[in-house]
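Lecture 7 notes: from sequence to structure.
We start with the chain below.
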Amino acid sequence: MQWYTHRCVHTPAPSKVQGAAPSDIEGSLSSKSAHLLILLAFTALFTWLFARFFLGPLYLAESDLYENGLPIFLSPIWKWSSFEFSGLPVLADPANFNFYLPNVVFGELLRSWTAVVMSGPLLAAGLTYAYVFTVTRSKMAAMFSGLAYGLSEEMLERLRHINHVHVIAWLPLIVLSLDRLRVSGHPWRWVAIGAFAVGNCILAGHPQPALYVMYCTGVYAVVGIVTGSGIRDPGSGIRDAGSGIRDPRRIRNPRTLHLIATTTVMFALGIVMSAVKALPLIEARTMVVRSAGLTFERFVGPSLTAPQAFSFVFPTVLHGPTTELPTYVGIATLLLALIGVSRLRTDWRIAFWLSMALVGIGMALGTSTPLVDLAYYVPLYSWFRNLARHMFLFAFGASVLAGFGLAGLQRSEVSPRALRVTLVVVAIAMVSGALVIRGFPTAFPLEGPHGEPGPGVLSLLTVGVWIQFAVLTAAAAVLVWMMRRPSPMSFVALVVVLVVDLLNALPYDIKPDGIEYFALTAEQTQPSVHAQAIGRDLEPTHARALAIGGTHVDDVVPATFARAWRIPIAGGYGAMLIDRLSRLATMGTNGEVRPAVLANEDQTLDLLAVKYVIVNAPQLADQERRHWLYGSDRWREAAHFRTSRQTDRGMDEDVAGETDVTVFENRRALPRAWIVETVTPMAEAEAIRTVKESRLPDGTSFDAHHAALVDSALVPPTLTFSPGASAVSVGRIGDGDIELRVTSQGGGFLVLSENAYPGWRARIDGSEAPIYRADVTLQGVVVPAGTHRVDFTMESRMLRWGLIVSALSAIICAALFLASQIRPRSTIPEQQVERHERSV
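Predicted structure tokens for the same chain:
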């Protein structure tokens, strides 16, 4: 940790600045119990914001919370889902954050979805408070920074991307641990804490921001070691290059090589702690659709345009998608951050977080800067899309810089001139922006009262413009008040301005019972009568349904709810779509398929056991789809109804706004498992062509009901069978557990319509049997004559080793933490440390 000094290069003489010491302003907030009170205040604030969901009870279901997060929470499946994408490796899906601590506590133990969601911004606020306090020794500055980060657009407006929010919430604890490693008498305690933070950052579920956090904190560690590497003789004290003061506690700090070692151990332990998710994800990396890489356009993603750049001060200027381009951190935060930047020479962290904030903005600007071209060649960066997801660096960096600025005001280390310059700069920027908005109204559409696009700015009196000047005036008045006559009330006023500003900037109404996110009742999380009917029809053969336009627009079995409701579908939602299935079915990551897959000669949907296809009225406008669905004997209209994602629970209702849905039956659909007579080895590309054309390479016909294509890399010893009369029934489909009952007179080749994937094992009456990859992406085994029980089970070695390695890492971290508590290494009396703290 780095200590502040009362002396600063830019500090005016005491006679010219009226102020009070932090202890005078903070008053009763001088005891350790004050930290607890502040954190309880944070908890109370966020609990109020989410009160309506706790009291409802309601399930937050905004955007991706509905498509992915909530159904995952409602489903107990954690290894393998047979209900999406014809088999999905849940064990490798980062979004399925089973082992993430807040989910374990709030989700698995308390069964509170609202608590899981809320814990992200609450953690961000509390951990930011802890970090900023250690670098400023000001509870007021830390409290402001915590609120600025926790209530920013990056946290609340992007909350629908729950995994992203929870990942970046751990950033402040990681950098806090790195700081404490350099100065603490208990370095191994902070190795354990830092590893815990790194592990949870990765386990939170989104590998992209986790990678960015690792790069950011890795650079932070290097810069911290370099700036503090001037280690002298232990008896003479250590000068911290960041603050320019001599800290007696640095006497007990490890030397540079030891510091490098402990820092490395911290990151290594944290990364290893995430092995339970990391190892299966690494294994899946080459088998899912993202393995093919991204185009440069998708890599860069949505970027801020020149008009959208004004959203930093006018948050209602549309800068969508705001979930990818969150910009607003509050006018007071920007003012204090600029004041913090003016104190650049007092602490290396100011320069660091200024740089990180600029990196975040630079990435969000896309190809307008050379940063994105450089990023493409950074290791692992090209795996992910939308570089604007770096914007959390701006939100956190601005919040930390604001903490430095407020601490400087508190200690009378900021001159009136610096404050005046800051106010003038922001005022000029806002006035200029308002004039440009007035001059070019069509280029600056505003969000409506509920986040919808507005008609455009008609005058400077438009709410989205003038209210920001009111906020600027209020923030400026409070900052001048704090400089001239600092008092607890001035700080309270500043916090009120910040909270009101940030909550007002959100595209959601704030009511007495909190924020109005979109939510569902418990009844609305259950399948509709139409989904239940489809599920019952599929049950005898365990066949599948498919929304041909994609699950993201399906109102019957939307997105990941197939897993929660246990209604098998061939589509799904997410990046864990197996690449072979994607190429065979011409399917995207939202389950949408190209119209040609409906053609008579294409047997893909037959092999995937798709009995029903679900089609919304707009999708029937496609002429190719209509041609095959209405002009072929293969398809029969089975049902027609109107529904939505919230209606028709319990009974069919006729409600305005419902979608017209038509369900077609595939008369050629195969069951979930069947026996064939012949097996033909074939390369993958030829196999895909054979399935789609119903013709073997030699020109003879191919019928998936009676023949199978196997990967030529592993071929069964027998290629021709005489099964005679045969029958296959499905006894159970569970979490990576499928039980079949197979009867045949002469034996045959059993095909299971389930994605082949490492870890699957087959047993026939308890004896293991080899699995062959059949029909491009399915599984097959040779079964002998007679009646047999065939069990397919997912027994992933990567998952098993991940569990072992993660458990060992957690045990090591716990041991290091407990050992540091029992055997402290401090060589300086605690009284001396306390006297030094009081002097600062």
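Points to note: The first helix runs from residue 22 to 26. The CA atoms of residues 49 and 416 lie 37 Å apart.
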